[in-house]
């Protein structure tokens, strides 16, 4: 399944978390699932904090990229953009808050569910919930800002 990240212009596709052109990155894909957004990720053994559990910084990273991807989806929807090659809106993080509720097991898929809490002309707030094995382990709030197409060029 394609995620919003597959539609980012090439100059926005280098992100370590979600950039399709970053050979060392996570290659996260964020997509709509009804009224929520979803990102799935399988941590590698080298994402270990202590044996059996995922490093918290990596969890913050995937929540961050899920948030900006969710915001990009929301802006595309708000602006009636039909996604096609390299036309997706792109956002950067203005604020990231992460709360670790319980250790996240490393031996399986992680799913991040996003809810668009607020959106205006340039800014979106996304509430994220990270699940492992069906259990809520981490929550986050991401404020993402829409950037112009030539940002970073």
Automatic annotation (TrEMBL):
<dbReference type="InterPro" id="IPR029069">
    <property type="entry name" value="HotDog_dom_sf"/>
</dbReference>
<feature type="domain" description="Thioesterase">
    <location>
        <begin position="52"/>
        <end position="134"/>
    </location>
</feature>
<keyword id="KW-0809">Transit peptide</keyword>
<dbReference type="GO" id="GO:0016020">
    <property type="term" value="C:membrane"/>
</dbReference>
<dbReference type="Pfam" id="PF03061">
    <property type="entry name" value="4HBT"/>
</dbReference>
<keyword id="KW-0443">Lipid metabolism</keyword>
<dbReference type="InterPro" id="IPR052365">
    <property type="entry name" value="THEM4/THEM5_acyl-CoA_thioest"/>
</dbReference>
<keyword id="KW-0276">Fatty acid metabolism</keyword>
<keyword id="KW-0472">Membrane</keyword>
<keyword id="KW-1003">Cell membrane</keyword>
<dbReference type="GO" id="GO:0016790">
    <property type="term" value="F:thiolester hydrolase activity"/>
</dbReference>
<comment type="similarity">
    <text>Belongs to the THEM4/THEM5 thioesterase family.</text>
</comment>
<keyword id="KW-0963">Cytoplasm</keyword>
<dbReference type="InterPro" id="IPR006683">
    <property type="entry name" value="Thioestr_dom"/>
</dbReference>
<keyword id="KW-0053">Apoptosis</keyword>
<dbReference type="GO" id="GO:0006631">
    <property type="term" value="P:fatty acid metabolic process"/>
</dbReference>
<dbReference type="GO" id="GO:0005737">
    <property type="term" value="C:cytoplasm"/>
</dbReference>
<protein>
    <recommendedName>
        <fullName>Acyl-coenzyme A thioesterase THEM4</fullName>
        <ecNumber>3.1.2.2</ecNumber>
    </recommendedName>
</protein>
<keyword id="KW-0966">Cell projection</keyword>
<keyword id="KW-0378">Hydrolase</keyword>
């Amino acid at each position: 399944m394609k995620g919003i990240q597959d539609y980012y212009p090439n100059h926005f596709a280098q992100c370590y978390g979600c950039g399709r052109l970053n050979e060392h990155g996570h290659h996260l894909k964020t997509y709509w699932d009804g009224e929520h957004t979803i990102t799935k990720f399988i941590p590698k053994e080298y994402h270990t904090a202590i044996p059996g559990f995922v490093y918290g910084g990596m969890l913050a990273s995937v929540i961050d990229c899920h948030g900006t991807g969710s915001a990009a989806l929301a802006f595309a929807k708000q602006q009636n953009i039909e996604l096609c090659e390299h036309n997706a809106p792109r956002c950067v993080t203005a604020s990231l808050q992460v709360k670790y509720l319980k250790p996240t097991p490393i031996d399986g898929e992680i799913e991040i569910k996003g809810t668009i809490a607020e959106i205006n002309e340039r800014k979106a707030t996304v509430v994220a919930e990270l699940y492992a094995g069906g259990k809520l382990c981490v929550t986050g709030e991401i404020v993402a800002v829409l950037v112009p197409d030539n940002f970073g060029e």
